[in-house]
Amino acid sequence: MSGESLSVSGQTNTVVADWAADKQAFHVPWGKLMMWIFLISDTFIFSCFLVGYMNVRRTTTDPWPYPSEVFALELFGQNIPLILIAIMTFILITSSGTMALAVRYAHFRDKQKIFWLMVVTAAFGASFVGMQAFEWTKLIGEGVRPWGNPFGAPQFGSIFFMVTGFHGLHVSCGVIYLLAIAFKVKKGDYDKKNDYSIVEITGLYWHFVDLVWVFIFAFFYLW
Amino acid sequence: MENVQTQQAADSHADEDQHPIGIYLKVWILLFVLSTMSYMVDYFDFQGMLRWSLIIIFMFLKAGFIIAVFMHVMWERMALITAILGPPLLLLFLIGFMISEGFWVFNTRVEYMGRPAAAERIHVADVHVEEHGEEAMEEEH
User: B15 at the A interface (CB within 8 A)?
Assistant: First the structure.
C-alpha cells in the first residue's frame, strides 16, 4: 500500500486509496451497498423498457396517440391536459420529500418523527397507486388494450401497461416496505445495535422509485 | 493511513448531522418548480425542438437533484459514486444502437409495406365524438 498517494488530498486520490489494497472498498454499511447494487440492476430493467419504447415508437408506421389528450381529465367542466399525471408527479415528489426528512431524523434517532414521516410517505405512495388504478380503469374503459387502442399505434397500449404497471408494482412494494420498517422503528427494533441505517436504505429505494417516474413522465407522458 | 482514517471518521454517523434541514426543503421546492415547468411545456403545447430540449433539461435537472441530495450521492466517497454512476453510462451505447436500428426498421417498413392511409395523428376528441371506441375495437378483432 503506497503511503505517498494517500498524502495527496483530493477526491480522485480517494479512489486510488480505496481500490489500492486488499481491503474494504466502500465505506458504507453492507445493506446500503446491496441496495445500491439492486438499484443499479433495476436501472437496467427500466432502461430496457424505455429503450424498447423508444424503438417501437420510432419504428411503428402507425401514428402515435397524443398522450396529452389521452390522459386529459374533465375537471370543473374543463378538459385539462395531462392533469392526473401532473398530480401523481407532485404526490410522488412530496413523498420523496417526507422520506428525505425521515432519513434525516434517523440520524437523531427521533423514533416518533421517523415513524410518522415514513407512514405519511407510504400514504402518499398508496394514493399514487390508487390514481394509477383509476387511470388504468379509465383507459381500459375507453378501449385501450395491450394489443390496440382507438387513438393510434397499438404499441401505445402495450408500452403503457407494461411500463406504468412495472413502476406501480415498485411503488406498491415500496409502500409495504416503508410500513414494515416504520413499525419496526416504532417498536425500537433498531435500538439494540443503535443502527438506523435501514431507514436510509429504505429511503434510497423510495427515491429511486421517484427517479424512475421522472424519466417515465418525460419520455412517455410528455414526449 | 492517517488520511483514510480521518475521512472514514467524516463519513460516520456522528458527522452526518451537518446537513441542515434547509437543503432538503430547498431541493423539494425546486423539484416542485421543475415539475410545474415541465407540465407547462405540455399545457402551453410547445412543439418541436423547444419542447424536446425543455423536457430533457427539466428531466435531467430533477434526476440530478434527486440523486445528488435525496439519495445523498454528493456526500458519498468517489469510489462509491463511480461504482453507482459508471455502469448506467453503458446504456448510452444501447440507446445509440437502437436509434440507428430504429431508423433502419422504419424505412424498411415504409418501403416494403407502405405507410398506412391513416398515418396522421388522431385527436382524442375525434374518437370520442363517435362514442363507440369500444365497439370499433371489437369489430377490428
Answer: no
The owner of cell 448510452 is: B92
- Tell me the domain boundaries of chain B: 1-88, 90-141
Q: CA-based angle A56:A132:B126, to the nearest 5?
A: 60
Of B1, B2, B70, nearest to B30 by C-alpha is B70
CATH architecture of the domain with residue range A28-222: Up-down Bundle (1.20)
CA distances to A63, A145, A188 from B135, in Å: 21, 13, 57
pTM of the model: 0.83
Task: In whole angstroms, give the CA distance from residue B20 to residue B29.
Answer: 15
pLDDT, averaged across chain B: 77
Interface confidence (ipTM) of the complex: 0.83
Q: Which residue of B has its CA nearest to A211?
A: B63
A169 touches chain B (CB under 8 A): no
Strands (E), chain A: 73-75, 78-80
